[in-house]
Design brief:
Layout (H helix, E strand, L loop, with lengths): L1 H10 L11 H9 L5 H5 L3 H8 L3 H15 L6 H8 L4 E2 L4 H6 L4 E2 L2 E6 L6 H11 L12 E6 L6 H10 L4 H7 L1 E4 L3 H16 L4 E7 L3 H6 L6 H22 L2 E6 L1 E3 L9 E3 L2 H7 L2 E7 L4 E8 L6 E8 L2 E3 L2
Parallel strand pairs: 3-7, 3-10, 4-5, 4-6, 6-7
Antiparallel strand pairs: 1-2, 8-9, 10-11, 11-12, 12-13
Length: about 325
């Protein structure tokens, strides 16, 4: 009887029960997006002090208590493998492409595709925005997409066309889809944070598209003197996207621009912008480029468990497909 009572008390432990958190502080934390113990347990001391206006000592105590109540310990391999069963893989529309990246765009991870203009980055985004609404058994996720557009590339008429190709109701697909234009890097970062609010409103979001990731950061931070500030902001943005992916089992698809390395005399000098911050935060990285006779080439550059590889796919009026 006593054990049952203790379990019940543990389950009912809320943010307001944390040491140093009263009604006013709890309200500030919730407004900043810290709505459960997990979000507080994985937060940094700096984030809590900024959000709730508490001192560092109090913030450390709050985080420590949240971690203790959640019993955030090490898990054995079998438990971790079982968690991987919850991962959903959204088809790209090309069997070869899906095979290259382990079955499709994974939930709980950031997939980055970079390449020059016309390489198929936005075309893949359009296809994923439709495919995510398919049932899981058909390669979808049974959810909807949110598109953060920084370059003015979002075209609802293309999504409508691809929905018709898939035999879906265009009106239903467009009605479920959410798109928004970002006008600077701060706005882009804020919109990524606001996705969580949409989820809490009950929207079954399973895919977040950022097209493109670096456009605003690249134009606003010019010269070596601003590089440290840019990378710091970019790091925060990538961690916001990662937290969304892990907390809500969402697939994050970001497109990225490229630059030519001046010190590269042999081979392909093309490199993704954003440096190590983007490279380390992205779970899967794919380099896209134009191939022969209107085809596209996808090269897997980085993955936690897959070997490097290269495939050819096509982009036409029917969307992404195989040759």
């Amino acid at each position: 009887m006593k054990e049952a009572k203790e379990i019940k008390e543990k389950k009912e432990f809320t943010i307001k029960d944390l040491p140093g958190v009263g009604a006013a502080t709890a309200e500030k934390l919730m407004e900043a997006g810290f709505t459960d113990l997990m979000s507080i347990a994985v937060a940094s001391v700096g984030e809590l002090t900024e959000a709730a206006g508490v001192g560092e000592v109090v913030a450390k105590r709050i985080i420590a208590t949240a971690r203790q109540k959640l019993d955030m310990g090490f898990e054995n391999g079998m438990d971790l493998l079982k968690k991987r069963e919850n991962v959903i893989k959204i088809t790209t529309g090309s069997k070869a492409f899906d095979s290259l990246i382990g079955g499709g765009i994974e939930t709980g991870a950031i997939t980055e595709c970079y390449g020059p203009y016309g390489s198929g980055k936005t075309a893949l985004a359009n296809q994923l925005a439709v495919n995510v609404q398919l049932p899981i058994e058909q390669g979808g996720a049974g959810g909807i997409a949110v598109w953060i557009d920084s370059e003015g590339t979002l075209r609802p008429e293309r999504i409508k066309q691809l929905a018709e190709v898939k035999g879906l109701s265009p009106d239903e697909v467009l009605g479920n889809f959410r798109g928004v234009r970002s006008f600077n890097s701060d706005h882009q970062m804020l919109l990524a944070e606001k996705v969580e609010d949409l989820i809490k409103e009950g929207l079954p979001i399973k895919l977040v598209i950022v097209d493109s990731l670096m456009s605003h950061f690249r134009s606003e931070f010019v010269g070596r003197g601003t590089l440290a500030d840019r990378q710091q902001k970019l790091n925060k943005h990538m961690h916001t996207l990662l937290r969304l992916a892990h907390t809500y089992n969402i697939a994050i698809y970001v497109t990225n621009q490229v630059m030519a390395r001046p010190d590269m005399f042999f081979g392909d000098p093309t490199e993704a912008v954003g440096g190590h911050i983007v490279a380390h935060a992205s779970t899967v990285r794919v380099y896209l480029r134009r191939g022969k006779k209107g085809t596209r080439v996808a090269k897997l550059v980085d993955s936690p468990c897959l070997p490097d590889g290269e495939i050819i796919f096509v982009v036409d009026e029917k969307g992404i497909g195989d040759i």
